[in-house]
Specification:
Helix content is 44%, strand content 12%. The protein is of the alpha+beta class. It has 3 domains: 2-54 and 90-184, 4-Layer Sandwich (Deoxyribonuclease I, Chain A), CATH 3.60.10; 193-256, no CATH class; 316-368, no CATH class. Strands 1-2-4-3 form a 4-stranded mixed β-sheet, with helices on one face. Strands 5-6 form a two-stranded antiparallel sheet. It is globular.
């Protein structure tokens, strides 16, 4: 699973970028494995209201793909049905009653293109509410996820505003629970010193910050008064980081991490012979062609989409050959015509018959 942290400046800011979502999408496609669950969390400065963040395929798109539809493409087009099976409401709720802004429309389009879904108003204690994420009652912070990641969300909550953590924003609390495969590496002789948050000692942390708040103000003033080149900004940010780290050490202390280093063996390291790098590349090309066609329904984009949808997996011909050689070609020929349960019954009966014939022949030969 991949988790990305996002900050997009307000659309009226001098730091705003019209291509912010395109840049995030390119980065996500580059880093994300095809089979990997994906999520993004942060301040998108996007007001979406209750705009739909998914697409129900229309007949025109299905007609374009026509006979080239396969399981992979169908799964992508009807991904939203995973929410229905997990009993996640398709319709979101939101306390933010203001009209969606430009970045809000861009966010929902981004979600539609990448099969990502807004969690706010859909799950956890926020289900059916869609609490505002700022003290100004706007909802501009989001946790967006792949559809199959909803089943791992154990807790989702918007924490009440606290000036200690932000001047405007509320915190998003998310707890994910899943099983992972781990291996233990050799223990290092060097024990890393770490700091752990201790809830009962948080007042010490606040006191340590407040008794040196003049230092923080001086650093903030330094940013305002400086020429704001990279060197000055990096130096001030480093000083702020060190200040908060020292306050945490003084408040909670440090301890040696005695736990062995664990490594998660995710889907990215598993190369399937029937779905290799070439297949992954073909699928990315299809998604890219689909995105271009949705943005501009031209003849060229339509033809590109049809070409991109014609790829097939290496194992199809091999599977068909195996079925032919073993006398089960009816399974291939009956695709879509009979239920899978009926196919299982037929396979079981044929195996029983074949085993019975072989056993009878062996008994006859042995009696001679």
């Amino acid at each position: 699973m991949s988790i990305g942290c996002v900050y997009i400046p307000p659309e009226n800011s001098k730091y705003a970028s019209k291509d912010a979502f395109e840049e995030i999408e390119r980065e996500m496609v580059t880093l994300r494995d095809d089979e990997q669950l994906c999520s993004l969390i942060g301040d998108f400065n996007a007001r979406t209201g209750t705009l739909l963040d998914f697409v129900i395929p229309d007949e025109n798109l299905v007609e374009v793909l026509d006979e080239n539809l396969n399981d992979e493409i169908t799964d992508f087009l009807y991904d939203y049905q995973n929410l229905i099976s997990l009993k996640i409401p398709l319709k979101r709720c939101s306390e933010d009653k203001m009209r969606p802004n430009t970045q809000g429309y861009k966010l929902v389009e981004f979600c539609k293109r990448n099969n990502l879904y807004i969690t706010g108003g859909r799950t956890g204690s926020d289900k059916g509410i869609g609490k505002a994420t700022t003290k100004d009652n706007s909802l501009i912070d989001y946790f967006i996820v792949s559809s199959n990641l909803f089943k791992y969300i154990e807790e989702y909550e918007i924490i009440p505003f606290d000036a200690l953590f932000s001047d405007v924003h509320k915190r998003i609390h998310v707890k994910l629970t899943t099983e992972v495969t781990t291996i233990e590496k050799e223990k290092s002789s060097h024990k890393r010193k770490t700091i752990k948050w201790i809830e009962k000692d948080k007042h010490k942390f606040i006191e340590n910050i407040r008794k040196n708040e003049e230092k923080v103000l001086d650093l903030c003033n330094e940013i305002e008064s400086s020429k704001k080149d990279n060197h000055d900004i990096n130096r001030v940010i480093t000083s702020l980081t060190n200040f908060y780290s020292q306050a945490a050490k003084d408040s909670f202390g440090t301890f040696a991490n005695k736990n062995p280093i664990k490594k998660n063996h995710g889907a990215k390291n598993r190369n399937k012979p029937w779905f290799n790098k070439s297949c992954k590349l073909k699928r990315k090309q299809f998604h890219s062609a689909k995105y271009k066609y949705n943005k501009q329904k031209s003849i060229n984009n339509k033809n590109s989409l049809k070409r991109a949808s014609q790829y097939s997996f290496k194992w199809l011909s091999s599977v068909k050959q195996i079925l032919d050689d073993t006398g089960f070609s009816f399974v291939w020929n009956a695709q879509g015509d009979i239920k899978s349960s009926d196919i299982k019954k037929e396979i079981k009966q044929r195996l029983v018959d074949q085993f019975g014939q072989s056993l009878s022949a062996d008994m006859t030969n042995s009696s001679r």
